[in-house]
Every structure is written in C-alpha cells, then in structure tokens.
C-alpha cells in the first residue's frame, strides 16, 4: 500500500468524522456557544482544560488570532501534553484522586464562569473530578469527549462515572475507542489518530457560535486579531486592557 493512499484514507476518515459532528452535534454545539456567550455577556470568565493530547484542543482556543480573548487555559502541571519527563508521568497524574479539587481551589474560576473539559475517554479521575468539583463550585461545565468509551471501557474513577455524567452540555467527538483510524498489512498496531483534528474543530465551532450569538445581542465579541497583520498588536492591546480582569494569561 502506497504512502499517498494511506494519507488519503486518513483525510477521508477525518473528513467523515467532521461531517458527523457537524450534523449530529449541531444542537449541542449551539447550546455550548450560547452558554459561552451568556457568560461573556454576564461579565464571567471562560476556562478550558484538557490533559495529555486533549490539552492541545484546549490550548488551541487560548490567546490566538480569531479567538475569544476571555478563554483561559486551566493548566494542571504535568498533564499539559508532554511537558514532563518521563512523558508517562502525565498519564499517571490523570488518575490521581484529589488533584482536580486542588487545582480548582487555587484557580481564579468563580461561580457563573464556564469550564470546558476535554477528555477523549472521559474515564480518568482527573477530568471526572474536575467536572464534579467545578459544578459544585457553581461553574457551567461543557464536556468534549467520545461517548463510545463509556460503552466499551471501565471508569477509573471511584464513582464508576465518566466525564459526560457531570456536564451541563456534552459534545461527542464520535472518535472510536483506541483513537486510530487506519490499519494496514504489515503494520501491527492501528494508527493515524484523528481526535485532535475533530476536537479542535468542535472547539472552534463553539467559539464561532458564541461570537455570532454575542453579535446578535448587540455585544461586540472580544476577539483577538493576528499580531502579524497591520494594527493587530494595537487591537489586541485594547481588548486585553478592556477585559484585563477576565484574562489570566496577560501578566
């Protein structure tokens, strides 16, 4: 099998998943966008959390051109991608009980804020407890996960529940268990994961809905511009000054 054929098969698989989430999750995407817009309009703040590779989709909506300036990364040290050595430590930290509560208690999140929690499997203690504790604190929780994992895997949280069980709104990424879209003769393990592509698209779709919702209410969405276009730095400086009490990456 040629490399170009495999590349084409991956694109086909990713595009198929994007079509599915566009069509099957449209209502939930709109609801999540409205929740984000409600929070912005009410003076609240926005946070996104993800562990391991799920953190990539969270980082993708923080401090970026075309994105909402109020989206902040809720980071748990050691779990943001491969920022620790050995990298396997990050996976182990996702299973530690009590870590989520400590992170939330020391964060600037307040009742009425929105927290988006991204976890492909939704089965580990960290995202489950993050959702449970966030709701107990009065935050609105949006979960981005693959519901398929709840049918094919066992929860690693003592409650036996999954991320989806503790969210106000759930966005199902439709990713198959194992997160690998391709198999091929001569290659022993399945390969070519698409979760980052799909989850990032879901996040950007929610942000787009939120921006449109705010505009319909007559509220200018607090968007950032590219610093690589003329006037971008000045625009972003104005936005960050205006919303400085709701942005936590600007210090």
From TrEMBL:
CDD domains: SIS_RpiR (cd05013). Residues 36-225 form the SIS domain. InterPro entries: RpiR-like_SIS (IPR035472), SIS_dom (IPR001347), SIS_dom_sf (IPR046348), SIS_GmhA/DiaA_subfam (IPR050099), UPF0309 (IPR022951). Pfam families: SIS_2. Belongs to the UPF0309 family. This is UPF0309 protein ACFYWW_18790. The lineage of its organism: Bacteria, Bacillati, Actinomycetota, Actinomycetes, Kitasatosporales.
């Amino acid at each position: 099998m040629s490399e170009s054929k495999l590349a084409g098969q991956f694109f086909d698989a990713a595009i198929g998943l994007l079509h599915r989430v566009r069509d099957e999750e449209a209502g939930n995407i709109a609801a999540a966008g409205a929740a984000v817009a409600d929070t912005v309009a009410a003076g609240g703040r926005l946070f996104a959390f993800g562990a391991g590779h799920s953190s990539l989709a969270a980082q993708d909506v923080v401090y970026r051109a075309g994105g909402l300036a109020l989206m902040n990364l809720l980071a748990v040290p050691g779990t943001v991608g491969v920022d620790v050595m050995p990298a396997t430590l990050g996976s182990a930290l996702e299973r530690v009980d009590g870590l989520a509560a400590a992170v939330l208690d020391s964060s600037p999140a307040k009742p009425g804020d929105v927290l988006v929690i991204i976890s492909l499997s939704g089965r580990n203690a960290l995202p489950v407890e993050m959702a449970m504790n966030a709701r107990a604190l009065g935050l609105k929780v949006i979960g981005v996960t693959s519901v398929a994992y709840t049918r094919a895997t066992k929860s690693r949280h003592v409650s036996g529940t999954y991320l989806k069980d503790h969210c106000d709104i759930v966005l199902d990424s439709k990713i198959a268990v194992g997160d690998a879209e391709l198999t091929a003769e001569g290659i022993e393990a399945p390969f070519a994961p698409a979760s980052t592509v799909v989850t990032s698209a879901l996040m950007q779709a929610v942000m787009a809905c939120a921006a449109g919702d705010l505009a319909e209410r007559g509220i200018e969405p607090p968007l950032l511009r590219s610093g690589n276009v003329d006037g971008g730095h000045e625009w972003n400086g104005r936005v960050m000054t205006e919303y400085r009490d709701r942005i936590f990456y600007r210090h």
